[in-house]
Design goal:
This protein is of the alpha+beta class. The chain contains 8 helices and 7 strands. The model has no long low-confidence stretch (mean pLDDT 93).
Length: 254
């Protein structure tokens, strides 16, 4: 890598209906830069490698601490967070592309609405009825709390959906993140009141568990190392038990 400049190739797109194109940028090098700081440099001085004035690159970011998941993009062929992608650790020229599993709004900015809609479908929250003081809730056993905490690290970054070959515009598959969240909230003492409803959603033929091809790309790609395939296996077992309960008409909340 040159000690003086940074070479970036950005896949750009003006809007959802426009064709994509590549634009090269050459930036002055500074130690300890990440991809976000390089994009901020382009925003400050939007001139491409040919010396032509251009528009600043659109991207999304918030926490800059790999917590919010907003800055996810494909960097040198791998989906990851741009806030923790250090320039010194990347091969140049650095190629930046949007995660194409999601609709592109502009340049590197994508619309992750499908992830949030999937979380709504599976009721990925702990329901609380009313605003009054309910007092302390039931406690979780420490062993369960520890593995539940690992599942709670999900930041809806979308990297697992980008890596999954079964998530595409021809499939309704909700993806591994939502499935893992079903496991998380079904394990919660209060969240379990919607346990059967969540499992019924996963049993839905349109986008449910049956659409998982078990490629296991998701668990390899997850930046938080969430055991997504373990969650998928656990939910496969849970939905099988739920189907028996439905067939025999037993109590679905048991």
């Amino acid at each position: 890598m040159s000690e003086q400049t940074i070479q970036l190739i950005v896949k750009r797109q003006k809007d959802q209906d426009s064709k994509s194109y590549e634009e090269r940028f050459e930036l002055p090098y500074r130690p300890n830069m990440n991809v976000i700081s390089a994009l901020m440099e382009i925003r400050r001085n939007p001139v491409n490698a040919k010396g032509e004035e251009t528009t600043s690159v659109a991207w999304d970011a918030s926490c800059l601490e790999e917590v919010c998941g907003a800055c996810s993009m494909v960097i040198n062929g791998k989906a990851r967070q741009s806030c923790t992608a250090l320039i010194d650790q990347l091969e140049q020229p650095i190629r930046l592309e949007p995660m194409d599993t999601f609709p592109v709004v502009r340049d590197l900015l994508i619309d992750r609405s499908q992830m949030f809609e999937s979380l709504k479908r599976v009721k990925a929250w702990v329901p609380i009825d009313g605003t009054y003081d309910l007092g302390p809730g039931p406690r979780m056993p420490e062993a369960k709390r520890q593995w539940a905490y690992e599942l709670s690290k999900c930041m809806t970054c979308g990297v697992c959906l980008q890596a999954c070959p079964n998530v595409n515009d021809k499939s309704e598959f909700i993806g591994p993140a939502a499935i893992s969240q079903v496991r998380l909230f079904n394990a919660h003492p209060t969240g379990a009141m919607h346990k059967a409803e969540r499992l019924e959603t996963l049993m839905d033929g349109e986008g449910g568990l049956a659409s998982c091809g078990n490629s296991q790309n998701c668990v390899e790609a997850c930046p938080k190392e969430i055991p997504l395939t373990t969650s998928i296996a656990a939910m496969n077992r849970a939905t099988t038990l739920q189907s028996f309960k439905n067939f025999f008409g037993t109590d679905n909340t048991a």
